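idk why but the lab printer keeps eating my pages so im just putting this in chat instead. protein + nickel (II) ion:
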Amino acid sequence: MSFRTVGATELRTRFAALLSDLYGGEVPAYGTLVEVSQEVNAEVLARAGEQAERLGSIERVTAERHGAIRVGTAAELEQVARIFGACGMYPVGFYDLRTATPPIPVVSTAFRPIARDELAANPFRVFTSVLVTDDERFFDRRTQDELHEFLGARKLFPAELLELADRAERDGSLPHEEAERFLHLATACFALSAEPVEREWYARLEAVSSVAADIGGVTSTHINHLTPRVLDIDELYARMRARGIEMIDRIQGPPATPPGHPDVLLRQTSFRALAEPRRFRAPDGSVSPGTLRVRFGEVEQRGVALTPRGRARYDAEGLAGLPVTDAELHAQDLAYYTRDDAGTLLPVVYEDFLPRSAAGIFASNLTGGGRSDAGRPGAARDATWMRAVLGRALHDPYALYDAERAAGACLP
Ligand code: OOG
Ligand code: NI
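predcted complex ->
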């Protein structure tokens, strides 16, 4: 019996490590990705020294992961918020992927720590998408009804887990034994289920969107990918290919900046979803083996966060719209910085996601293009809707970066 209590920071660190072990066991290529990332990071550190740690200590970067999960209903999203809340991860940003190319029938947010010291301790974040089941551009009335019935009948998170999560959030910690139980239950909820998949139902949803099938065609959820952070994504991409791993055809996000120039925003790439064994149930009740390709491996390189002004320039003109030094990015209010004691500019890391890249990541791993009818009415979904569903604050990324810059007494 131990009387030690476990706080949110430690719960988050342990949760991230447990999910990493789980995913490594399920998707062996993830292990290769982590290994190659660490190899590249060690080399960048040896080559660039202190400069390599401008965007975070090597300890932070080595432990850093983002995950992605997908849920089916507002109620499920609210429950996810409680589990992550116990780990000091709060919803930041609203992303609508329905208007992306190709359209994906989800809206998303990212759960992450929001305080600088919490990000430094462990920045684990999870891109979380919820299916928009009542969007007529994707689902006809009959399918909507069936989706509501199917999703309404499933239970992703056991009551004991949610009670422990609420207690952890209320008290700021859990006693040792309860913390172990919480971590065990929380991790188990994101494992790939051995339950047979109803073949016809899955196929019908897949004809609309394989993301819809991955969410609404099964009775559980799972980690879709887990992403290590790398300090040189071009080098990583080349090495993964050299090891014979099939990567998507490009790196998403801004192109590489010339040597010595600050990295901006977020660059991402992934290896293609692998065929994983799953069991299928036919309408006659018989169960037979098959495979599904839904889970993949992604890697990311993070740079300085852009201000709304910097982001508008980047969106309109790409990197050509931005100056190439920290001093100019700061002076023109295009990127966020704080200062160290010596007065040197320190970049504020971009901690969020890019909707265009997210759509690209989704799309590059879809089987078939899917189907949507732009002429039909959509369903109203925005940040206000999501805030109401979450029953808690939905943070605006720019407000967080502004506050950090102001606290660092570093206004342009
Ligand atoms: C999420 C895709 C988006 C990212 O890093 O932009 C994403 C998903 O596949 O569920 O993870
Ligand atoms: Ni991702």
